[in-house]
Amino acid sequence: MTEPALHPALNGLGFLRRAELISRLRARLPAAAVLHEPEDTTPYECDGLSAYRQRPMLVVLPATEDEVGFVLRECHALGVAVVARGAGTGLSGGALPLADGVLLSLARLNRVLSIDPLARVARVQPGVRNLAVSEAAAVHGLYYAPDPSSQIACTIGGNVAENSGGVHCLKYGLTVHNVMRLAGFTADGQPIELGAESLDVAGLDLLALVVGSEGMLAVVTEVSLRLIPRPQVARCIMASFATVESAGDAVAAVIGAGIIAAGLELMDQPAVKAVEQFVHAGYDLDAAAILLCESDGTTEEVENEIEHMASVLRAAGATAIRVSDSEAERQRFWAGRKAAFPAVGRISPDYYCMDGTIPRKRLAEVLRFIGEAERRYGLRCPNVFHAGDGNLHPLILFDANDPDQLARTEAFAADVLEKCVQVGGTITGEHGVGIEKINQMCVQFAPAELAAFRAVRRAFDPDERLNPGKNIPSLHRCAEYGRQHVGGGRLPFPDLPRF
Amino acid sequence: MSALSDLAEQVREANRTQTPLVLRGGGSKDFVGRSPHGEVLDLRGHAGIVAYEPTELVVTARCGTTLSHLQAELAARGQWLAFEPPSFGEHATVGGMVAAGLAGPARAAAGAVRDFVLGVRMMDAQGEVLEFGGQVMKNVAGFDLSRLQAGAMGILGPILDVSLKVLPLPQASVTMQFVLGQAEALSQVNRWSARPLPISASLWHDGCLSLRLSGAAGAVAAAVASLGGDRLDTAAAAALWLGVREQRHRFFQAEAPLWRLSVPSTAPVFDLAGDTIFEWGGAQRWWHSAPGDDATERVRALAQTVGGHATLFRGGDRAGSVFQPLSPATRTLHERLKDTLDPARIFNRGRMYADF
Ligand SMILES: Cc1cc2nc3c(=O)[nH]c(=O)nc-3n(C[C@H](O)[C@H](O)[C@H](O)COP(=O)(O)OP(=O)(O)OC[C@H]3O[C@@H](n4cnc5c(N)ncnc54)[C@H](O)[C@@H]3O)c2cc1C
């Protein structure tokens, strides 16, 4: 598809408004911070969900908090919509620009402002990379726990907007559990501060509402993060299983035994094969599935827990067990899992990553459903799985140059997400709704619930200027999509006692 | 007619006639917040555990379920609510526990009520049932209105069912005591908290710092060996933490108004005369103001200068300003959120702040 030289929205009045905005912004920002030539704006046309692309009207790169407020106020005055962007690694199109809007990059606000080792708090700007926080805290024996696989690139601002998780979040929580305070601006450029460096605040817990709000309630310019002491040691078990079902059952057995593993990840054989070629982690290529099961804590604790885990895994039918016996080996076990997406990217021209969460006990059923869909759509789909918390990442392999494959991929993904809702789960565990799963929101939520989301959005942003068109579908859109709310997890007779 | 349709009927009627409703479970937390006024919406009838899957670490309970029933069911499977909510009376319900948003001694280590809320079903002022979040550990679809219900004091409407994350009970727990003044205790407990030690609770009162270490037996034993101090026997330790959680500890027996200061753990000792106690590694401090002394402005200012807030927790003027006033920007957001779910402001009006 070739794009017209100027988006229709920018004809006539739109064009004047664009010129006016550029001149107002340039009055205070250096020329290099306001980009409008296509060669400068094209690099921002998509995030990690590259199937959707749109060049923004302008890209603005403020360098300070004050400049962010200024840009928002100018946009507000001219009625221009704004999409915030961190590193652009998001997988749901949350940072997809608008043709007639401003793409506000927070990448230049990239300083770690302070680290208080006694209070265990890091104050950072939103453009700081996730891993950089732990690196800065390391001298104090502290770290920031949420560790998305994209942590070398993704920013704290993006993590806050998506409520990102990582492979250690069963034990250490998601972003929402590790953020104490946010400062930023609402859409009209007015400063707000939510949360505190105390353990709670007076009034409603607005911080919890803004975390995971996909850049639609506020633009975040400063974050206080909770740091925790780095455990003395960590060791990881790699266990092989003859069927995916038995691996799933083993996860339930570990948790049933009262063990909260520091990490509990499952990969099926196609995923293992793709990763092994790429990373040489030493994975068992004969296993139908492998589990990575980590223990961390004091030396004594880890030794006991690893023994306990190993015996539970064996009893659950593990065909082979390896325990990391050095930090390098542990890192190697994880390197494979953390590189799963790029590894799959090497065996297929394109891949489409899903993010549904299900009650773990429905795993076998959902994996069977995915297997049937592979045959039905003629597409392969390896699976990686945050097993401890039921978060699936099926990766559909396809070739985007073939429009038919792209269409089949989208239909495949929609089927899987709706299956997740049907078994009592959700369409997104950590990647967000963005533009990608907006139709499936109509399946997961009833009209009154969608109306409540919209009202919440308007409480913060009455004109709906921050990231419009994402996350919350209009009822009109749902009617067009035509698939009904299926009442996920709702029991047929919710008022009858069952316990 | 089911309990739920009765509730919906009562809510719709109240909304039509603009009658304020007092949402009440067991009434154990009537004293929390500003004094309730209005017609009682009794939520005890909507009770029972809907689903409990120990291996999924999730329990879903109706709001009227008693906290003690829920806790007993979890304990029977070796699990618990790791944020140790106080019950403040045997009739406490699950809905009230979530709405009050109060956590116990384990708060600093384990997290707050909202950290364990996975999903809610709630009712809006039209009597419509809305469901947010879910029964799974991770869910980022839509805005997180379920966590927002924790600590909302019912002003956003009744919580009907709530799904909570549960955790295995710790294998071992040992309490050690150290003779220390308040300032020394504050800096010591912060230093220890920055080390990988299994500290699950802390309490300072009257020259003595008590530290609870919980988790794997090996880790607890190693920590005990490295920290020193005097070991409190198991029964006395259990009584100590229960007493603090339920405010039956002798500090809480005084009649004078009780203030709660929620502050960064490293905030210095406050210049407040009289008996004080701290928990949560220094992040939660309790103080009795002298009877008749209107300490409100002073306490609020002290908390605010360190980035915290102060609550008149018990006693004093319950019709006055109980919670720290909100900044104008935050206040506007509160009012707008209230109006989206409850435009006639019928639900627990005035329970948190005077006009909403
Ligand atoms: C290889 C790979 C692996 C991944 N692994 C994981 C994983 O393990 N776990 C996980 O949860 N995610 C994962 N992701 C997804 C992605 O990395 C996360 O969603 C991440 O948090 C996005 O951060 P970002 O800085 O790239 O944000 P962006 O993609 O730039 O933006 C994401 C959203 O945040 C908003 N936003 C950004 N900054 C701000 C701000 N300052 N204020 C307000 N809104 C803002 C944007 O508008 C957008 O809606 C992975 C992605 C890739 C490509």
Could you give the topology of this structure?
The complex is a heterodimer of chains A (499) and B (356).
Chain A: H1 13-26, E1 34-35, H2 38-41, E2 58-60, H3 65-78, E3 82-85, E4 102-105, E5 112-116, E6 121-124, H4 130-137, E7 142-143, H5 156-162, H6 169-172, H7 175-178, E8 179-185, E9 191-195, H8 206-210, E10 219-226, E11 228-229, E12 233-241, H9 244-256, E13 263-268, H10 269-279, E14 289-297, H11 299-315, E15 320-323, H12 327-338, H13 340-347, E16 350-353, H14 363-377, E17 383-386, E18 391-398, H15 403-422, H16 438-444, H17 447-460, H18 475-481
Chain B: H1 3-17, E1 21-24, E2 39-42, E3 49-53, E4 58-62, H2 67-76, E5 79-80, H3 94-100, H4 107-110, H5 113-116, E6 117-123, E7 129-133, H6 145-148, E8 159-165, E9 167-168, E10 172-179, H7 182-193, E11 199-205, E12 208-215, H8 217-227, E13 230-232, H9 234-245, E14 258-262, E15 276-279, E16 284-288, H10 296-305, E17 309-314, H11 328-341
Parallel strand pairs in B: 1-2
Antiparallel strand pairs in B: 3-4, 4-8, 5-9, 6-7, 6-8, 10-12, 10-13, 11-12, 11-15, 14-16, 14-17, 15-16
Overview of the molecule:
The complex is a heterodimer of chains A (499) and B (356). Chain A is α+β, with helices and mostly antiparallel strands and 499 residues long. Chain A has helices at 13-26, 38-41, 65-78, 130-137, 156-162, 169-172, 175-178, 206-210, 244-256, 269-279, 299-315, 327-338, 340-347, 363-377, 403-422, 438-444, 447-460, 475-481; strands spanning 34-35, 58-60, 82-85, 102-105, 112-116, 121-124, 142-143, 179-185, 191-195, 219-226, 228-229, 233-241, 263-268, 289-297, 320-323, 350-353, 383-386, 391-398. In chain A, the strands form 4 sheets. Chain A has a 7-stranded antiparallel β-sheet. In chain A, a hairpin with a 4-residue loop joins strand 17 (383-386) and strand 18. The N and C termini of chain A lie far apart (57 Å). Chain B has 356 residues and is α+β, with helices and mostly antiparallel strands. Helices cover 29% and strands 24% of the residues of chain B. Chain B contains 11 helices and 17 strands. Chain B has helices at 3-17, 67-76, 94-100, 107-110, 113-116, 145-148, 182-193, 217-227, 234-245, 296-305, 328-341, and strands at 21-24, 39-42, 49-53, 58-62, 79-80, 117-123, 129-133, 159-165, 167-168, 172-179, 199-205, 208-215, 230-232, 258-262, 276-279, 284-288, 309-314. In chain B, strands 13-10-12-11-15-16-14-17 form an 8-stranded antiparallel β-sheet. In chain B, strand 3 and strand 4 form a beta hairpin. The radius of gyration of chain B is 21 Å and the shape is globular. The mean pLDDT of chain B is 96. Chains A and B meet through strand 9, helix 8, helix 9, helix 11 and helix 17 of A and strand 3, strand 7, helix 6, strand 9 and helix 7 of B. Residues 47-48, 83-91, 94-95, 106, 126, 148-150, 154-155, 157-159, 161-162, 164-166, 214-215, 219-220, 341, 430-431, 467 of chain A line the site of flavin-adenine dinucleotide.
